[in-house]
Amino acid sequence: MAEVRIGGKSVGEGHPCCLVAEIGINHNGDLELAKMLMHLAKRAGFDAVKFQKRTIEAVYSAEELAKPREHPWGTTNGDLKRRLEFGHSQYAEIDRYAKEIGIDWFASCWDQASVDFIDEFAPPAYKIASASITDDNLLRHTRSKGKPIILSTGMSTMEQVEHAVEVLGTRDLVILHAVSTYPAKYEELNLRVIPVLQQKFAGVPIGYSGHESGLASTVAAVALGARMVERHITLDRTMFGTDQAASLGPSGFEKLIRDVRLAETAMGDGVKRILEAEVSIIKKLRRIG
Question: Tell me, which fold does domain 4-285 have in CATH?
């Protein structure tokens, strides 16, 4: 399997699973909250944090933005969408703070102008959100930046995934199995897709982007060979926001990282042998052989 270098981390067979904390829009437009989540992600042991970037007028229609929607910052959907978008000064501070605490950051960009915007900060990679997997022009524009790409595959058929990979090429590509329900139910997760993707896209690291509320399925994804894991994080799952309930709070994501690393240790090398620690047990318990 080829490896993909994302910032200070190699993603692929033989390397520890790359753990990405999806802050996304869980900052609710509050820069200090975003920085607190970055700090907690770094302290917990995540390798990178990810945000989301949209050019509101390019992604949403005027009709969609005008729809009534009650929330803490206004009365329309547009009020909310604009509240959740950081501008240049906020991202400059995110970039500065990421360097200060020593964590990589990147973003999923939902339109070409957002790709150009984030490119000013020289991110180590770009993320293609599941919602954008069928946008060939966005795929090509993102690929033109010459950076590794992480492709999420929620709400997609295998044919759509194959087409996206054909557009992007397999160089510096990581593919994430995902299910785009928030929060996802365990019976929806279909983790057996991970080895199917490994077989179909041999040489491309395969990972998992989870939107469930628990931990066990993500650990299972790592045991199935996921080389990157992305999970949404929040300070409090009861906060306002569409993604909060599908996120992990601080105690949850600390346990997740602990369990993923323990699972990796437990996987071993696949060679059946007698351990030195078993020799005394053999002498005590085995009567024959």
Answer: TIM Barrel (3.20.20)
